[in-house]
C-alpha cells in the first residue's frame, strides 16, 4: 500500500475525568468508545494522564497486557501484587507484564524532594503480549543519561536486535518504543516500519512525511503507515515518543 499519515490533535482527544485525574485518550478505552478508533498497529492504548497530589488509581487488576509507562513531570508511586513497589520519575521507563493476572496501584507520589508539590503528568501505553498467560513481571530502568544527547533512545523493545540495548524488555517481538529530547533545531530520522505512532509530549516539532511537512504541538500525534523513513525536527526544545511496529492487529 502507499504510505499514509493521519494527524490527531491533542485538543481533539476524548477526555475522561475522575477525582484528581484527567485522562486524554488516543483510542477507545474503558467506557469511552469510538467505533473505528480502537488501535494503531499493535498499540491498544495511549493515554495521557494528569494526576493531582493525593490522587491516583487504587488497586485494580490486569491480565495479558503489556503496560509501558513514561513520566513527564512529577513522580508516580506504584505497588503490585508481585511485591514490586517504588517510584517512577522523568527519565525512567516502567514495563508491567500483567500475564495471567496482576493487581497494582498507581498514585501521585507525595514523597521525596518536591514530589508532592507538582502535578503528575504521564503517558501510559498498552499492547497485547505475544504469549498470553505468562507469569506477571515488572521492569524499570533509568535512561536519563542516554536521553541527554537528544537522540532517539530505545526505552522498551521486544525485538531481538535490542536484546543488549538500554531499555526494558517487552513481550511483543515486533514493537519498540523510542523516546528523544531534542533541542530546538535538532532533526531526528525515525524508524522505517509498517506502523509508526509519533507523539509530541512536550514542545513543538515538524514531521516530514507524506506530501507536506506537518507542525505538531504538545499533545499532538501522527499515525503513520508504510511511510518509509520520515524525519522529525524539533522547532522548540521537545520530548517525543515514537512507537515502531512491524505488524498490526489483524494483519
From TrEMBL:
Entries under Gene3D superfamilies matching the protein: Jelly Rolls
A Pfam family this chain is assigned to: Pirin
InterPro entries from the UniProt entry: Pirin, Pirin_N_dom, RmlC-like_jellyroll, RmlC_Cupin_sf
Residue stretches making up the Pirin N-terminal domain: 12-127
UniProt similarity note: Belongs to the pirin family.
Full protein name: Pirin family protein
